[in-house]
Specification:
This protein is of the alpha+beta class. Helix content is about 45%, strand content about 15%.
């Protein structure tokens, strides 16, 4: 087992590796559970690291730019502020709160397979497909460790 050289960065990088190894567990029983556990590390930990590093903040991208991150406007159902609500830093803050306080729900297709997660926070609701969510958290985590 490799040692940690920079604990915060290494935990995030290893969590990205776990998400990227999904191809090996596709169709397995706990694939979404694993994603939720990874979300905790990829949304909560980076926010805590960033709060201690005053020189770094998330890009203030608008939603058009977020399509590169896997999120589309139709995934964001409700925002509290139209001018700030569709910005990356606001979406991440609400998603982090949703995960940290377990205000997430699984949405299933007709066969019972989980196809998206619903995130709820004060004045915010998003329904993000699993594949888009995987893409989003990997890009988010990579932006934090750069």
């Amino acid at each position: 087992m490799a040692e940690y050289t920079d604990f915060n960065k290494d935990v995030i990088e290893r969590t990205i590796d776990i998400v990227e190894s999904y191809d090996e567990i596709k169709g397995k029983k706990y694939e979404v559970t694993l994603l939720i556990n990874c979300l905790t590390g990829l949304l909560v930990l980076p926010k805590e690291i960033l709060s201690k590093q005053k020189h770094y903040s998330l890009p203030n991208s608008n939603l058009e730019d977020l399509e590169d991150w896997g999120i589309k406007q139709e995934h964001i159902i409700k925002v509290s502020c139209a001018s700030c609500g569709y910005k990356l830093n606001n979406i991440v803050r609400h998603m982090r709160n949703s995960v940290a306080h377990m205000r997430i729900d699984a949405l299933n297709d007709d066969s019972g397979k989980i196809v998206m997660l619903r995130f709820k926070d004060s004045g915010f609701k998003a329904e993000i497909p699993i594949k888009a969510l995987e893409e989003f958290v990997k890009k988010l985590a990579r932006s934090v460790i750069k």
